[in-house]
Design goal:
The longest helix has 20 residues. It is built from two helices and five strands. By secondary structure, it is α+β, with helices and mostly antiparallel strands. It has one domain: Trna Endonuclease, Chain: A, domain 1. Strand 1 and strand 2 form a beta hairpin. The chain is globular, with a radius of gyration of 14 Å. The protein is about 30% helix and about 40% strand. A five-stranded mixed sheet has the order 1-2-3-4-5, with helices on both faces.
Amino acid sequence: MEDRSTVDRGASAEVDATGALLAAGYRIVERNFACKAGELDIVARDADVLVFIEVRSRRDGEHGHAAEMVSAAKRAQVTRVARIYLLAREPVFDECRFDVVAITGGVVEIIKDAWRSTS
């Protein structure tokens, strides 16, 4: 089981990320979509693009930038869950993308188009 403080920090990071995304003009569609394959932290719209957003945070940059925590395995999992989301919700979007909100030492950075789906 996860350490409760880790869960609390994650929830706090998602709140901070949501605020930054709203300030940047995103519209939040859904938070914490979950299925057997995993979870999407945030689903949002950026103009006419549906965006799947992974949120990562680190207290400081001593051990690297928060964005470095999004491994290839995590990207593959988020991509799988995004496909399930599209089937379940049937949104009408011509374009989707994957962004990361990285919070390192309290500094929030939105990384647009952080990776692309290979299929």
